[in-house]
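Hi support team,

I've been running sequence recovery on a batch of backbones for a student project. Most finish fine, but this one hangs at about 90% for roughly twenty minutes before it completes. I'm not sure whether the input is malformed or the queue is just slow. I've pasted the structure tokens below so you can try to reproduce it. Let me know if you need the job ID as well.

Thanks,
M.K.
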């Protein structure tokens, strides 16, 4: 029976076997043994075990992207796999540094050292194939430090989305993985607590000097996880220790299920061994993924689907396009060749070209027994693709306002207690830093007035980042000036801090958004003297806030005469007001000058007073930076000044706004040498073409040579991957790069259609809308038939989305696994909406509409 058992539809067959009373042991269905492959990980069909192919980057602490990780039937299900110091480590709990990682082919062993500097504690971990799984050993040269006895243990974490709604057996005793955390917790005195990152605390103990310790869901020697599901079945056996199963979500919504064994005290040598066997379905193949634009296609554009295949899959020769008739019938419209493209990362790729089909209608693609969801071909497919971003996403991000939509209030008017001067010599957990001086007239912790106005939550968290605000203003001004985006579906009342979605008020929304961003930037310059890096909550236990931003602070200004948690109704003794990180930078001064100079033009008719303040602030920043003698600091070639590449856009925007030729001269002086250095990047061909309408015919003629050079510089993308766009995927997904690439191509095509065709713009759009690796979901929530419905917005704890938000996209797990999860919202590098990417998408959408309408 064993040998002949074929599981083609794993779950179904297993269920039948169980129902028939067979005893199912993992050896019945496990496939071949794991082998160490040339890429440095353990592999068999259906199962890969990565051992620190990916390591903690330190950028945002535990990103659940490192350690011993299982790619289980095509899906990454485990992370961590390290000596850890808590039952359920949180994002800001200490992670060990990795040293001395060795991949030994002779013994098929991957080994490494782990080190906690804070406790001078080192351990070694080795992983080697055994039977149908791996043997994990923890080795100590010195006993664990006394302080960590009972705390240091070996943990591995399993993603809840792959395990809830499923069962486990602990030493044969059944249990269910909870959908929502409800395991027992106990309190312990703070003196017992292991340090968190840099002495911060994720927990607000309300002054009680205590912390929470999650209790186990089950304990035993052997755990079988998801025995009913061959795709996710994992057996873990502690050879000489106790195993416990925990739920990390007791402490943090982004926690995982954790299997853990505490290390024995006062021992050295091999102190712990686990046998871990992820089940492998024999002859498993990943289902082909047919990738296409979820929005569909304009009749006259190229239409090429990409088909992503398991390396063990045999490519089929043909794919088909079906049309859905008004009667609900499917008509085969076209059968064409599925043309081999080659290998990219771990998959093989085919391309299916159905450009010849131009009839408007509803279609789907069929390849083998896979059919896609439907999409459209028609002249208007792009007409509303940016509406959710401007109508919903941007309003939801608006700070200092109540934002309402129908029966739902997204959030109240937040951070009315903004803001305090950040202290000097301070490193903040979100990357902000203060040096030895404040660069302002304010003392540390002194209130800086006038900042409780305008601005957007930068991303899934709630800080104001001035740099991304500059990007947003630039994107919105460009959209307004290039495409006359007059859409009005939002009611904005600045005086009463109230925003209502889907409610026109007679004013173009894009101007109201420009106004909202400009209000905060101008307030920075007027009240502080210059723009600042950003404004953010001081305490880590505030920063991880999930919920209405109104409640991240108490919205009452801090009053040192009151006790913590005490209030007189007007102020409060709780030090929770946001801090302003005020160190000055010439680059930020000038990029803010650029965005405010641009904003001032668009606001002339909408809000004349604010337009004047924007221009005054921009001129002040220009004068204080460019007109003062340059320091003896190292100069970049071509006369670049300490503001670096920020000076060029500032000069251009000030010229367009004021028509003062001195700015034009400075722009041109900087531009040509910059183009000679590189045509790419924001200082390259893109800004040169943005300036085109304000320059003469000679300028356009001279620029053409650089446009040709640009085209040559992008030729490689067609060979790098089957999508023909630049895919970057380290640390943070690369959708921003794809959108910015497509926008640059738009400017080049518009000026020189003979140099670059419009397809270079549309390729970028197709990628964002679903024609990309891993899945075929549109990366813009609520745009396209199927799109990101679970993302890292401010509502991520509800496994939900914000319509119109654009996610970063694919992350690469070294050496060869691209990922963008749709069942788990907490990977910021994959799924966190950011305001500047989303507004660049508004511009790109309008560019595409402009192109296809011609
Ligand atoms: Ca409006
Ligand atoms: Ca407060």
């Amino acid at each position: 029976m064993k040998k002949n058992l074929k599981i083609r539809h794993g779950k179904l067959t297993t269920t039948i076997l169980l129902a028939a009373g067979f005893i199912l042991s993992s050896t019945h269905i496990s496939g071949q043994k794991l082998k160490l492959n040339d890429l440095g990980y353990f592999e068999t069909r259906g199962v890969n075990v990565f051992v620190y192919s990916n390591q903690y980057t330190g950028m945002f602490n535990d990103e659940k992207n490192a350690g011993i990780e299982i790619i289980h039937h095509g899906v990454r299900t485990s992370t961590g796999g390290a000596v850890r110091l808590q039952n359920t480590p949180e994002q800001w709990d200490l992670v060990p540094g990795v040293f001395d990682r060795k991949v030994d082919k002779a013994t098929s062993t991957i080994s490494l050292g782990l080190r906690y500097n804070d406790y001078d504690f080192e351990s070694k971990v080795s992983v080697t194939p055994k039977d149908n799984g791996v043997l994990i050993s923890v080795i100590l040269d010195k006993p664990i430090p006394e302080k960590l006895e009972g705390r240091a243990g070996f943990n591995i974490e399993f993603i809840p989305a792959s395990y809830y709604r499923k069962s486990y057996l602990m030493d044969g005793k059944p249990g269910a993985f909870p959908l929502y955390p409800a395991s027992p917790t106990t309190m312990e005195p703070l003196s017992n607590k292991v340090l968190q990152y840099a002495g911060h605390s994720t927990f607000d103990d309300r002054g009680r000097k205590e912390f929470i310790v999650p209790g186990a869901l089950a304990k035993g020697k052997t755990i079988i996880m998801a025995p009913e599901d061959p795709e996710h079945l994992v057996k873990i056996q502690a050879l000489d220790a106790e195993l416990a199963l925990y739920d990390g979500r007791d402490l943090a919504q982004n926690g995982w299920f954790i299997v853990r064994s505490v290390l024995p005290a006062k021992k050295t040598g091999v102190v712990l061994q686990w046998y871990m066997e992820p089940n492998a379905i024999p002859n498993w193949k990943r289902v082909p993924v047919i990738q296409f634009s979820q929005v569909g296609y304009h009749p006259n554009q190229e239409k090429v689907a990409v088909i992503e295949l398991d390396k063990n899959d045999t490519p089929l020769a043909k794919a088909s396009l079906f049309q859905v008739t008004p009667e609900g019938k499917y008509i085969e419209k076209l059968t064409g060749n599925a043309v081999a493209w080659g290998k990219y990362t771990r998959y093989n790729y085919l391309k299916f070209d159905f450009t010849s089909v131009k009839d408007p209608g509803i279609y789907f693609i069929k390849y083998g027994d896979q059919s896609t969801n439907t999409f459209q071909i028609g002249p208007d497919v792009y007409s509303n693709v940016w509406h959710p971003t401007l109508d919903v996403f941007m309003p939801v991000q608006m700070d200092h306002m109540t934002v309402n939509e129908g029966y739902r209030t997204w959030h109240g008017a937040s951070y009315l207690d903004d803001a305090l001067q950040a202290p000097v010599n301070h490193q903040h957990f979100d990357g902000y830093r203060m040096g030895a001086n404040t660069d302002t007239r304010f003392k540390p912790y002194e209130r800086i007035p006038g900042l409780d106005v305008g601005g957007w939550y930068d991303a899934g968290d709630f800080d104001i980042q001035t740099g991304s605000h500059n990007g947003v203003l630039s994107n919105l001004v460009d959209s307004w000036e290039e495409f006359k985006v007059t859409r009005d579906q939002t009611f904005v009342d600045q005086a009463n801090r109230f925003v209502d979605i889907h409610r026109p008020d007679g004013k173009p929304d894009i101007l109201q958004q420009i106004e909202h961003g400009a209000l905060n930037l101008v307030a920075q310059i007027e009240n502080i003297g210059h723009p600042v890096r950003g404004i953010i909550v001081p305490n880590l236990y505030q920063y991880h806030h999930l919920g209405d931003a109104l409640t991240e602070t108490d919205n009452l200004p801090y009053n040192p005469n009151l006790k913590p948690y005490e209030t007189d109704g007007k102020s409060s003794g709780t030090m929770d007001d946001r801090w302003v990180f005020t160190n000055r930078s010439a680059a930020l001064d000038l990029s803010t000058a650029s965005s405010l100079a641009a904003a001032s033009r668009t606001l002339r008719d909408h809000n004349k007073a604010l337009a004047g303040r924007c221009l005054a602030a921009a001129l002040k920043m220009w004068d204080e930076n460019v007109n003062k003698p340059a320091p003896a600091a190292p100069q970049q070639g071509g006369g670049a000044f300490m503001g670096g590449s920020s000076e060029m856009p500032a000069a251009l925007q000030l010229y367009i706004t004021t028509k003062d030729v001195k700015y034009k001269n400075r722009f041109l002086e900087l531009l040509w040498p910059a183009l000679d250095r590189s045509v790419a990047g924001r200082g390259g061909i893109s800004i040169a073409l943005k300036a085109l309408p304000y320059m003469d015919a000679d300028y356009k003629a001279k620029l053409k040579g650089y446009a040709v050079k640009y085209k040559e510089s992008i030729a490689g993308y067609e060979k790098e991957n089957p999508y023909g766009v630049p895919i970057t995927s380290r640390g943070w997904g690369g959708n921003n790069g794809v959108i910015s690439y497509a926008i640059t191509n738009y400017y080049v095509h518009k000026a020189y259609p003979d140099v670059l065709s419009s397809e270079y713009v549309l390729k970028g759009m197709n990628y964002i809308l679903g024609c990309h690796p891993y899945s075929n979901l549109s990366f813009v929530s609520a745009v396209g038939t199927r799109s990101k419905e679970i993302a890292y917005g401010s509502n991520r704890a509800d496994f939900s989305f914000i319509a119109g938000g654009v996610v970063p996209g694919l992350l690469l797990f070294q050496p060869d696994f691209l990922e963008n999860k749709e069942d788990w919202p907490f990977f910021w590098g994959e799924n966190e909406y950011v305001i500047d990417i989303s507004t660049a998408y508004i511009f790109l959408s309008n560019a595409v509409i402009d192109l296809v309408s011609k």
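--
Follow-up from support: It reproduced on our side and the slowdown came from queue contention, not your input. The two ends are 65 Å apart (CA to CA). No action needed from you.
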